[in-house]
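Sample 1 of the test manifest.
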Amino acid sequence: MTAVLQATDLKKHYAVTQGFLKPKASVKALDGVSFTLHAAKTLAVVGESGCGKSTLAKLLTLIETPTEGGLHFDGEFKDVHQPAVVKSLRRQIQIIFQNPYGSLNPRKKIGSILEEPLIINTDLSAAERKEKALEMLQKVGLRPEHYSRYPHMFSGGQRQRIAIARGLMLNPKVLIADEPVSALDVSVQAQVLNLLMDLQEELKLAYIFISHDLSIVEHIADEVLVMYLGKVVEYADKETLFTAPKHPYTRALLSSTPRIHPEQRIERIQLKGEMPSPIDPPTGCAFHTRCQFVNDRCKQETPELITTDGAQIACHAVQEARLPYL
Amino acid sequence: MTTLSKPMAPPSPLREFWSYFSANRGALIGLYYIIFLILLIIFADVISPYHPYEQYRQSFLMPPVWEAGGSWAHILGTDDVGRDMLSRLIHGARYSMLAGAMVVTLSLIIGIVLGVLAGFYRGTFEVVIMRIADVMLAVPSLLLAIAVVAVLGPSLLNAAMAIVVVSMPHYIRLARASTISEMSKDYVISSRVAGASSFRLMFVAVLPNCMAPLIVQATLGFSNAILDMAALGFVGLGAQPPIPEWGSMLADARQFVQSAWWVVTFPGVMILTTVLAFNLMGDGLRDALDPKLKQ
């Protein structure tokens, strides 16, 4: 199994002004995230809003450059601070957005939306571009006559198909899906997810699937990365994570997902309070303010990601084996 | 017929626009009047009974045909040096519309470029441009225009340049505001991910989506330009005699307000109706192009 995309210790810090004459504060939107993505596999990234999921998407699509850390693509180190490298990587990493109503230019026909990546990145003639666009429309389950229509003539599900088609126009190896179905009806969600899975099989695409809906993640993912306040708290393959969640935060997330079968249900854990502000993160483990298994060590010492039983977990309580459910 | 065979397909943007625009009676009247003026301009040499500069020494200040002493030879009468009013008014439409078109085109282009650049790059560049625009807006527009003409020297072209300078800040502000709101949309990011250059992002992706408020401002700006032009002509800084520009016609004839009302009234009525027509059409355009007012 080949690693397509490998991220090592990605960090993104933003400087924010707090007010006149006050020193600038640094928001650690992403604070040391590492993962390995394999061809034709899906890595799901889950977490509450504000945990850095979308920042991760921005870094991986090279819209923003990381403060620290690096990317390996196809086993090669890529210096994302060089424009030429960025240009070559853009053809390989594409993105689909959450809101299909905002992600298509309302003044352009579907044809020119699909052909734009080709115009920018290739020397194909107009006829060749049109042929490719029509081919791609068919691949995502749309009809050739949709080529000359405007985005407002389509439903949400169809628009998301168009967005997927645009993402695939350059034959990328990695597709980043930033909550691709959360704006859609449940019945349409299933269609779009099935389309994504079919395309993955056909084109050997690797997905980074950002979501907060764990039932969808369970359906589509191979590996899961749970994030909290810019840090990875648990990174495991899907079976391990869903059958034996270890980190208290993962358990809390999973317990909030409705289950049909009673034997799959775990005790409902209600997290108290809000996620702390990333401007002023808590010392020690970032989750300690809301964790029911907190002790003094959690408050002072930041836990490292350590492999335990096939999962990488950042939690002192797991290491010390003082969790009642393990 | 394609819409009949596919009843579910929404109408094309142009057709939809027209259905909203034509629902507004005033806007339609404005549009028809403007079309009438444009035809007048194109065929001015054919329609007008006389040359606008030609003097008929036997008939100074002849009243219009329905007044006592009027004649069918000069339907709207003659001015103080015996020139035919109707011919002068028809040819005057050329200068007013030309000035309006020139002012709107130039200030729209410069305003869009500066505004989109400011909205796209933000930072110091934006601050510099916007503060200059604010300073220009703070000075009364006609006063600034007079100052500019005083520097450049009075002529039709220089007056138009002065009005361009005065009306530009409005377009800069509008273009910048819509650029900023469009820049945050996902389609811009996806264009960027596809590798689009800054130029392409600004003028191919973002600008077409910012055009609606700019088109409305341009139509309203057209009437402002005509009005400012007339005002500059009235104080003698615009078109120079014998050019039959409506504003300078008003100014030349103002001592006859009591004795020969038609020399003053007709140019004034032309300015009024033209400005009114553009404003009505601008209102209609705004209603038709504003998505918030659509059902």
